[in-house]
Amino acid sequence: MPLSETPLLRALRGDRPDTAPVWFMRQAGRSLPEYRELRVGTRMLDACLDPALAAEITLQPVRRHGVDAAIFFSDIVVPLRLAGVAVEIEPGRGPVFADPVRTASDVVALTSIDPAEVAAASQPIRDAVAIIAAELGERTPLIGFAGAPFTLAAYLVEGGPSKEHLRARAMMHADPESWHRLAGWLARVASEFLAVQADAGASAVQLFDSWAGSLSREDYRTFVAPHSRAALEDARGRVPIIHFGVGTGPILPDMRLGGIADAVGADWRTPLDEAAQLLGPDVTVQGNIDPALLRAPWLVLEAHVLDVLRRGRAARAHIVNLGHGVPPDTDPAVLTRIVELIHSGRA
Amino acid sequence: MPLSETPLLRALRGDRPDTAPVWFMRQAGRSLPEYRELRVGTRMLDACLDPALAAEITLQPVRRHGVDAAIFFSDIVVPLRLAGVAVEIEPGRGPVFADPVRTASDVVALTSIDPAEVAAASQPIRDAVAIIAAELGERTPLIGFAGAPFTLAAYLVEGGPSKEHLRARAMMHADPESWHRLAGWLARVASEFLAVQADAGASAVQLFDSWAGSLSREDYRTFVAPHSRAALEDARGRVPIIHFGVGTGPILPDMRLGGIADAVGADWRTPLDEAAQLLGPDVTVQGNIDPALLRAPWLVLEAHVLDVLRRGRAARAHIVNLGHGVPPDTDPAVLTRIVELIHSGRA
Question: What is the CATH number of the domain that holds B212?
Fold first, then answer.
């Protein structure tokens, strides 16, 4: 079976394979003991830039769970590190930038970096993707990814994680010229990072706009959607595109980015039948098992998964996933059991 | 002018005073230098339980900004502390409980405390409210408040702040009996705390369900709304009720709690004309200046405030507020200027 006939890629085209494809955001990561073991003594971004290590971590959940896709083990700030931006990921906190990008001159300085630097410095990424693609062969597609301009900007402008992304959202209104310059540059950075992964063997890409749900619809449309679309323009037609954000119920139709997204992810708040209705008949839905339910007894979780599958049938096709990433303290056996349930065809 | 004719209380009845009433969530707090000075050397919960100090902090923003309401300086975990629960507020982190409430037996142990203990231990609250009410006289109403059962449970079950409230949301499904016991008990705790404030002179109350926006509509209706309603049942008819949560656009109509709320707050994501349409003609809207815009140049912020006022006219009445609390690093002069703009009647 060629890769193009795997359930994930079929579902992204709008076909309905016999059983819905399933993968989990953050399936490669702290929920797996074999991951925690490999990571001992290695900082997050160093792990992302070690081809053998990043490849092995990417493959671990495919072997363990039998999911229908690998997701490249990396981080949304990796292309910024590759472009020369000083960033670290602090355990338990998240990305922290040595120099927050707050003023017009900060933005000018950052955006003077040529986004092509990302591609130039991406040999470790190419190498990792090549190892993974060779190992997966025609059985399992690899999903590449990038952070969307707004989510990257939310970290950059604040200098680290923030709850309501006040500084980035303020910049949109206080200095729209700087905002658009910054977001436009981040779109090119994301685009370069996606192209590297697609060139090296990724079969699909996902744009993560984790914090898009913090925006009003008007701000999303004016200040964010055009840049997210620009980030995906080069990938369009080359590889199928998944677009995901948390808390995006009220802006779900906008997450289609004018039809550029082949699939749109919904978090646990929006039932998939409602999502399908909001999104229309030309897009695949992805999601949306509630990560909270991974802690519930199996019978409760099973009923929830079956309900998610049932509601997903309202869409042209459905890629099963969680409503957000795998919580680090998840029992991995539960994830395997979900995959088995879905592949059993009982749903 | 009797208190009942002040703009806030008129707007809560659905009248339209000449200028819309305005107050700010967290107006009493870290944005004010006079607050930071008073708080030196005093822990948050100790400050809440010192009647003279809590009264003075409550009054500071009324004097400085000329807002149309005082909001009682306290914290949503204060009634839990009064009931004997071991809780502290850690600066920069939030409420932290010595003993998280995670198991059925944890819930049984906690809920064996008689909620009447809150009232029995509330003399410092009564004294503070009495000082404030005497000082405000008939000019300015005082708003009392309590945390809603879900938001309190989100902290209690986790043991502290959490992003997606996974443990509390898991308990709803994994052990609904324990969940309803816990939330029912928290409703009685909140009800006692509101009654103490209303008895001592608060003219209105607000129920803060800050994290309600993390729930699907179905979970909100099944596991949360009945308990929030129960928390307000005693206040109903005695004092007007405001109900607020963040990210509640998709569940806004449910936030009316079957008509028990006189006003429903919207955060910055939902334009007030849309909120008014979702809520219907029998409820006042509160909000929803974007806290991010407090950092923008005045002309940008002014245009935004005028837009909020314009959209608020779609509701039967409008109480101007932010879409969430005042960020700690806000320039207080900006808040004063907003109050002056609204009171100028230019809008």
Answer: 3.20.20.210
